[in-house]
Amino acid sequence: MKNLIDHKLYNRENKKVGFSDDTLERIRKIILHYPDDRRKSVLLPVLHIAQEELGGYLSVDVMDYVASLLEIQPIEVYEVATFYSMFHLEPVGKYVIEVCQTGPCAICGGERILDHLEKVLGIKAGETTPDGLFTLKTVECLGACGTAPVMQVNTEFYESMTNEKIDRIIEDLKNKGNQQPTETRWAELF
Ligand code: FES
Predict the structure, then answer these.
(1) pLDDT exceeds cutoff 60 at 170
(2) Which architecture, in CATH terms, is 4-83?
(3) Is 104's pLDDT higher than 60?
(4) To 5 degrees, how large is the angle CA 106–CA 161–CA 94?
(5) Ligand 1 center to residue 142 CA distance, Å?
(6) 185 vs 92: CA distance, rounded Å
(7) Is the CB of 141 under 6 A from ligand 1?
(8) Which string of b and e fits 59-89 if b means at least 16 CB within 10 Å?
(9) What is the pLDDT of residue 64?
(10) What is the reported pTM?
(11) CATH no. of 95-176
(12) Distance 25 CA to ligand 1 centre (A)
């Protein structure tokens, strides 16, 4: 395997794409947990780190960089990045709101929750508010069907949602404005 510390790539605009030396060292330690012939297994944690440290979403340049870093094919990265809803393929707002639309949540008011969010935020699912604060997405089962309807904002989970709860959450997030998020980031979990 290449020396990760030396590993930087240049994209089509000749801009450097790559992790900091500290992050590369962190990734090197994560890789040690996996057998050499199972390099692809380290893809999920590395993609989380890439998304959080290289611009908030996985551009083609970033996915190609990750493929090169892990010595796997770019298509193998694209397959994973496009499958999981927690990976963003284009820029998103500071707060990504994901509303579950799978059966149990749908039956318990998931659509109503989505309608209300679209009204409050003034955007449709798949869009980002002009101030860059919120992106609204629909996702499949978030694994908490017993407390449907549910939604997630970045890594924070919200259950038994009502319109009133949404109003409070949105108001709170707007008040936080451009402060740094205090919630756990996905990449910190690895
Ligand atoms: S259907 Fe929404 S959490 Fe499972």
Answers:
(1) yes
(2) Orthogonal Bundle (1.10)
(3) yes
(4) 100
(5) 5
(6) 15
(7) yes
(8) bebbbbbbbbbbebeeebbbebbeeeebbbe
(9) 92
(10) 0.81
(11) 3.40.30.10
(12) 37
